[in-house]
Protein 1
Amino acid sequence: MGLNVHALRLLLHARKHGAKLDRVVTIGRLDVLMTPEQVEQEFAAFGEHLENGEANRLIEARDRYCEPIIERLGAGVVHSLDASGFEGASIVHDLNQPIDAKLKRKYSLLLDGGTLEHVFNFPEALKSCMSMVEVGGHALFCLPSNNEMGHGFYQFSPELFFRAFSEENGYRLKGLFLAPLYRDGEWLKVEDPATVGQRVGFNQSIDQLGLMVFAERTRDVHLFAKSPQQSDYVEAWDGRDGNRLAFFDRQIAGAGSGGRRRSLRKFVPEPLLRFRRIFLAGRHATSAPDPSQFQPFDPRV
């Protein structure tokens, strides 16, 4: 977990679009996972010019934890919440359990730079995070989506965040973005599956991808009073989708049975089969995301 280029970019983008940093809580005590040059570049891209050597001082000020950078952006208070005190978190609490009532509606901004995938009781953890934000405040999450098997308990789908950060839960999703986790790279704005009319996913990449969530709390309601449901199932249950196997049909269209190829494959030497697997993986990896589901997005504009 940490404050990397994309988490800082999300924080700067959110501040530019109305998020207040009066009272901030980070989920996990976040390490700064950037060079001084990267910090300078991100600040400058949003019109914040650091003095010579300031980025390095911000990184090193508290043993490479993130609080000085967030304070530099105007935060009056920066707390951190973790299941253990081993990194000096200001609040020690296991998010598998409900949070104390005194933490509800306490913060103007919550930032998770990669914690919730490590919490087994994810619905309870998400509910707690959402409840810690005051009305008018914002919640930011940077969580794994693709090719992070083994990193934590979970990888996440766009559908989850569109359904959880909904009006009935007192939230408005101001942006959901897909970005590489461990390198700088282009952001893609993710469309709502309910709007697109089909499941939204980009599963043909060998890159490790994460979802960046930017949500505003609009009112104080009982969170998840009604459990979120996947939009394509809701559409089918309402009788709006006449083909219950539409998703399956799309996935197998043009695939063929492959039975004859499989029977012949046993006669092919393993080195050639290995080369074929690498070739096919590369071919799939270079497939572009569906433009009806993902659009290039520059958070700095």
Protein 2
Amino acid sequence: MTATGIADVAVADVAVVGGGIAGAVACVALGRAGLDVAWIASEVDADADRAGDSLAPAAGPVLASLGLSALLDGHRPANASFSAWGSDALAERNAIVHLEGPGRVIDRPRFEAALRAAATPLARRETATLEHAAVEDGAWRLALADGRSVAARFLVDATGRAAVATRRLATRRRDDRLVAAFAFLRHADPTVEPTPATIVEAVADGWWYAALLPDVRLSLAWFSDPDLMPRGLSRDLGAWRDRIAATRHVARWIADAGFAVEAPPRLESAGTTWLAPAAGAVRGAGWAAIGDAAAAFDPLSSHGMTTALWGAGRMAEVVPAWLGGNAAALEGYAQAVADGVAAFRAQRAAIYGRERRFAGEVFWRRRAE
């Protein structure tokens, strides 16, 4: 298919930009819907660790609807989770309370590699980064960093918080500047079998998350505001160890199970941001943001990856409807994202409000405002 003004480039039905979870799943959903999909994604370090390893129970039905349930095999069921939130004691919550079954603590690199493998036969992969996106005669012309161009009638942005493809098409809003300091700790004591569990612990200047990964490492993260973190934390192993030692339950788990704190953490933005609206049209060409490009939530929700799966799956309904001349599905998707953001913000305020031990501390005062 070609279009006037971009006759030098074959025009796909839809272009998906981004090679992470949302991008790969969107390619699966759109390809199975019978659309011609161009997939623009740079090279991925398949073995690199990434922050985020918790799949909420709601992810199961989403993956099942896409025929991807088997990808959860080998990832640890998150049956037991504990939290010290609003109390010094640890409270347990068991997965039996979820109708969808347990969530999962995933091996993130392996899970993403499996999603990419599922997507590869269903989309034409363009291994490059996006330089510029513009509309010409009702279609998107996407200029790639290597000098090539891709054209498509619809654009799906799955480029994460950066929203590279759509950030100029809507307003990026932000609730906070939460930062994650995260690391993956090696299990160094073979005489101890670590408990397969997840712990969330509130402290005066933020909160901690620790979860046993399928490979028996500990995923560890401290969430706080950048001005409350020690200067140079990502280069200071001593400061990182001091922060861990100041916790009550996380430090005890690390010590008792024999995990090694051998390197300082990496830092990554973890605040709540969203695009308003998350979908629309420019001179006859449709677009939608999915995953963190549409809405990135405070990780307290544990719904980041699940929301990415949901948005990617919705593209199988939204894009064909748009291409068929019906804008209602696109408008409905944008409204659903907006409603989800509003619901999350209300829920987050209620959850942070339950922690009264540190009500006078800066971190907690900010979240009560």
